Amino acid sequence: MMLDTAKFEWRLGVPYSSEFQSEYSPSKDILKGHYEAFLSPNKLLHRWQSLGESNSFSLGEIGFGTGVNFLSCCELWLKTAPKSATLYYFSVESMPFCKTDLEQFADLSPSLSTLYQELIEKYPAAIQGFHNIDIGNGRIKLCLMQGSVQEQLTALAESNCSEYRLHRKKGINAWFLNHFLVQEESSLWHAKIPQVIASLSAENATLSTYGVASNVTNELENAGFKISIEDSSGRQYQILSAQFQTTQRCREPASKGANQWHLNKRNNITLDKQAKITIIGAGISGCTTAAALSKRGYRVTVVDRHATAGQEGSGNPQAIIYPKLSTQENTLPRINLHAIMYAARFYKPFWDQGFGQQCGVLVLPKSGTSDEYFSQIAEKFSTTPAFVELVHQREIAFYSGISLNASHGLFFPTLGWLSPSLVCQKLLKDHNISIIQENISQIEWNQQTQQWSLFTGAGSATMMSDAVVIANAHDCENFEQTNFLGINKLRGQITEFPATKQSQNLATVICGEGYIVPAKNGFHGLGASYNVNVHDKKVRPADHQTNLSKINSTDSAIGAILRSSDAKIVEPSNIRGRANFRCTTRDYLPIVGPVPVLESMLSDFDFLRTDARKDSLQMGTYHPNLFINCGMGSRGLGYAPLTAELLAADISHELAPLERELRKAMHPSRFIIRDLKKKRI
Known about the structure:
Elements (H helix, E strand, L loop, with lengths): L7 E4 L2 E4 L4 E2 L6 H10 L4 H6 L6 E7 L5 H13 L5 E8 L5 H4 L10 H10 L6 E7 L4 E7 L2 H8 L15 E6 L1 H4 L10 H7 L1 E10 L3 H9 L2 E6 L8 E6 L15 E5 L11 E5 L3 H12 L3 E6 L14 E2 L10 H16 L1 H5 L3 E2 L3 E3 L7 H10 L8 E4 H8 L7 E5 L4 E2 L1 H11 L3 E4 L2 E7 L4 E6 L4 E5 L1 E4 L17 E11 L10 E3 L3 E2 L6 E5 L13 H14 L1 H7 L13 E9 L6 E6 L1 H7 L14 E2 L1 E9 L5 H16 L8 H6 L4 H8 L4
Parallel strand pairs: 4-5, 4-8, 5-7, 8-9, 12-32, 13-14, 13-25, 14-21, 17-27, 25-33
Antiparallel strand pairs: 1-2, 2-3, 6-7, 9-11, 10-11, 15-20, 16-20, 17-19, 18-19, 22-23, 23-24, 26-29, 26-30, 27-28, 28-29, 31-33
Helix pairs in contact: 1-3, 10-15, 10-19, 11-19, 16-17
């Protein structure tokens, strides 16, 4: 859902909210004001200087506004915190600024200009939900939660039930409250917000704001915060600081949707930063996961049947980030949307280093797709042309570099194509992660050592590991612990077609019935076939013909261009290709999270067979430190960066960078719960 953007005006060189009749800063001296109101009361300088290596700190903010608070924190963190430590910054904004407005604020704080430019470059569109941005070479992770304050904070939690909101997660260490929110009669304030803040707070968490209303002060005290009001001498505003005094969360009865099957009732072994984590699978899923865990300080090893990363499903020379939007706000399109937005930011350094092209993706109507559908998409995202825009013939010719028949399409300027195998290899190299060539056929939990034993087909234990992540696509079902998942193995073949004189001008990825990628080393990537119940990788001429037919159906002008040169060029011997297998799921969503113990889940949630709507505080049972990240179908390049970050956060007991509803939609236990409700098992 698109959000209304902030309305403001300039008054004496300071941004002023027309909506809330107040300035965006507590002082004319913007940096000084923010330091006095937020950084100093929370004693951040001292706390960050006292952090150890590889430690982390979580900061929550209600009201991202102009981003000055965030950037001031970035500047202080980069100067004072250990280089291996990570700042997690969770900020809620109900009315975000658009990027063009945000650019105006950079001049207000010249010392922050470099950080401002990095933020502006990565700043998301005004779309509801969680947006993840890395700043300072990954030392700072911003999760910008756009939408209703109460809804977004609740979505950050692990449960609808207060006592489980912070289930085994590291809480927020310090809070900033925007004074717009805490004014008298604020339309943004809800009496339950302090309770949600308390539920997400770590022990002894601090909080600060200014110009606070008396009713808000009372509500914060009732939630467990000890309040202190600083003298306003020399200022036009009072500063409120507070410290969370209790870890006793208010208990609420089970409410609608309070089932806790995604939470682990076992006390899993906590992994310290010296823990060894083994990733099974060196494709894009395994390598992004390995990198995300390595950034958090873990000792990571990747195991694969190949000596080099990215040789199976991630081995195509050109893969695209395929955008599939919807006019609906359903779970699948929401996850797709946030995945591709994050992927565009994640892959920017790889594009800059020549691992592909951020050339944009042009989506043309498929047969049966109405003009109205594209118009609805364009209307829905009308305020975000930097993300997607509706284009017509003149713009199509400009972006694509060739003349097409299509009258309209959707253009995504921040997307493009990459060589996944090169990305995989770069990720492992940059993080000094070794790859071991072994074909792991079995894993067993060793109760005595509290570790996993990994076995090859020969039957001998190859290695021991404190934790294991299964990321080997369709082969994930080969393990006893995961053979219930119902993975589908779907063959796909791409075609590498020789570029012609005319097709060399193709400047963007074009998608429709099929897709075509700008030429690399004299060949276009075309794809891809979908072959059910075909289990060999031998390249088939019939599938080449299918791919050519698909791209001709996408736009007949492309087909004509590909046929425009000497007939010898299209002889079968001059057409290359590659076939491999996708790992697909029943609901077309990835599988990301801890691996459940099937027998225990069936027993604990047997009541769902007779009453599918029954709410319960019963939690699930999961294998100790065993996780999975797979099932991405043909969209691994788009999904992998987000799912890797999500899984790494889970393993590290961090608050998740994605809404709870969407996390549960990708959870490995979802199939068990659904099948119980529908009496399939």
